[in-house]
């Protein structure tokens, strides 16, 4: 890390051992990298499972990691929300649906693994290269971030003072989603005429 | 001092590409939705990092809205999947090709 | 006076318009009645105008047509005695022809079209006769060209007839080009296109310009009047109905060229070269026509070549500066030639479309009235002494003889030879077609034709036979026409010659005419089969191969080039090119169509791909900056 290098150089110039603060800074970095590995591995696990339940479980782990990451990056409220909403509600919903519908264990037997993953991997590599180039250009991105913590009260104040219209709209959106789900979930497949029939 | 913002972005990008790969490579509708969730999460990570970098709370506020919208979207999406599964018995994405031109 | 002249021109135009717009609601009789009433009304107006006018010339402004930068086209009328005579002749002959047509076209389907165009033609011809402004004349000029195209190709479902109409139009067009150039020159020099102004200010012209203008006008006349070398359209134009041939190719359109030269004579007279050319062209054409008429077997083609020959005489008259002689012959020719054509029409209808004279015969016995009329016409055409054409042709030959210069004598000799040939072929035609032959037509082969068709011709015959009275030569003292036309610039009342020359000419013409008649009698009285076309006979039959020459040298290569341009460039290149482009687009869209599989996975892939492409683009652009 450039910051650390610079500090070490400064220290070397003055010939003093690295201070506690500087060493403590690097702890956060280590935590960050560990969390990054966790998140990515869990996500990778999630996308490659045949069994959908396994995939969801992997995803939950990934989200928990993300929550910890949020906390590290100074958003405790968001960390809590991540766990409650994302891991707790959305993934549970997924599990409900998967188990209720008795989805086949593997719906992807159409093509061999390698062929399936070739296209996304290639395109992904290309995109990664492109984005890396884009990200790496600006010198201001190289500085390590300072830690900070956003107090929930401050967060709440900002949310409901500056962004209250968006809050209202989001509530409305959730309401609409509720109504839609209720409607779609009704019984009676015979009323709809515009679907491809069973056993095509 | 944590990591530079670069690294957070790279993490977010890798997570996003994982989600995108899941969307493209998996054929079941449920797996596609999972991929979408991963992507949304990645966006959230990038936003929180940016919020920390510039010291503005707007990034975090955005993330909470993303979560709200993701919740709504997943709910409706799953309802649609259930509905169409009832009608046609398949959760394959390629099964629905009436819009073929 | 202005009203009279306006009505004179408008009656035929209104008749045409009425028939064109409302013809389908009228009965056949109604259509014919409208047309005939229009022309008879015009005749009445022509008579009224001639009687009413006391002045020598009248210039009357009718209508402002258009005006551009410094140039004004006005529809004016220059009504002098020449125009008066011409208008009267046109309306009189047209009336007879219209009345005749009522019977002739009694069973034809296109009767509305026929009468509409016939009236339109009369209007256009009257415009040529009366107009003062040269652009107005040009309007009439093109009008008669167009109407002749339509009327010659009247039965257009026959490809050959339609082609004949087209040929006539194209060849007269070549002459019209010269007229256009002359118009431009007139405007350049005189800044004004009014005939009356031009003839008053001919002093502005240098000799070279006058010669050029004279030659251009001569070329225009050559096209319109079917003289050498643009005469190949007239024999083919016999594809039209006989009344059309009578109107267009006897009385009016072919005389339009000669008439124009007479109107603009003060310009011609400034240039001896132009006059000489006119005389030469006229004479050679007269000879050419006579030779060709000598071997034809189609009755109308004989008359066609005869017209070519006689108009040559009129041109010769203009060339030797005798306008009165030319006009006199124009009138005589109009009367007897239209008589001949109309009588030929009666015969053709009676024999159910037979044109070949070698398949006629016995006509004198079975169609007595028509035979008599035809005989009257033949006597006039053959310049039988004391009848119609004798006095007019005699005057022309006399004028040629007394004209100064060696060339005139040569032309006179040729003219006399042509006169002999005229008499010869005329009576050849009569004897082969009309005399009694053992293998001629039997009584039951004749169809019944309406009596009206021949009754209408009797007044015309009388006019033809006695038209010599119009201008009895100086010895007998009348000179009606000559004195009437004295006010026309450039005209001579009486040709000045010694009494010996005059009487010599008269007796000589009479001798030639009678000699031709007698020779024809002995040569062709009992001729019944058509002789084979070989050698000299074939040369004359095809008109000295002139038509074939034009076709081989000009028409065929042009057609080939046009065909090439059509198939290879237009159809092959442009059409196929645009088809290929369209096909290319179609194939492109078919290819693109493969993308719309309707499957979600494809669309998701495409989204991902687009996302990657966008990122690449962004990063590259960042690098390039």
Please describe what this structure looks like.
- The complex is a heterotrimer of chains A (200), B (101) and C (625).
- Chain A is an all-alpha fold and 200 residues long.
- Chain A is built from 7 helices and no strands.
- The longest helix of chain A has 29 residues.
- Chain B has one domain: Helix Hairpins, CATH 1.10.287.3510.
- Helices cover 77% and strands 0% of the residues of chain B.
- Chain B has 3 helices and no strands.
- Among the domains of chain C are: 245 residues, no CATH class; 46 residues; 26 residues.
- The mean pLDDT of chain C is 86.
- Chain C has 26 helices and 2 strands.
- In chain C, strands 1-2 form a two-stranded antiparallel sheet.
- Chains in contact: A-B, A-C, B-C.
- At the B-C interface, helix 1 of B face helix 26 of C.
Q: Which fold name fills CATH's third level, the topology of chain B?
A: Helix Hairpins
Largest sheet of chain B: none
Average residue pLDDT of chain C: 86
Choose one word for the global shape of chain C: globular
Q: What amount of the residues of chain B lies in strands?
A: under 5%
Order of helices and strands of chain C: HHEEHHHHHHHHHHHHHHHHHHHHHHHH
Radius of gyration of chain B: 17 Å
By CATH reckoning, the class of chain B would read: Mainly Alpha
- What's the N-to-C terminus distance of chain B? 55 Å
Uncertain runs of chain B? none
Helix/strand-derived category of chain B reads mainly alpha
Approximately what portion of the residues of chain C adopt beta-strand conformation?
under 5%
Q: DSSP helix count of chain C?
A: 26
What tags apply to this protein structure?
heterotrimer; A: about 200 residues; mainly alpha; 7 helices; disordered N terminus; C: about 625 residues; two-stranded antiparallel sheet; 2 strands; globular
Summary of the model, kept short:
The complex is a heterotrimer of chains A (200), B (101) and C (625). Chain A has 200 residues and is mainly α. Chain A has helices at residues 2-14, 20-48, 52-72, 76-101, 113-136, 152-162, 164-184.
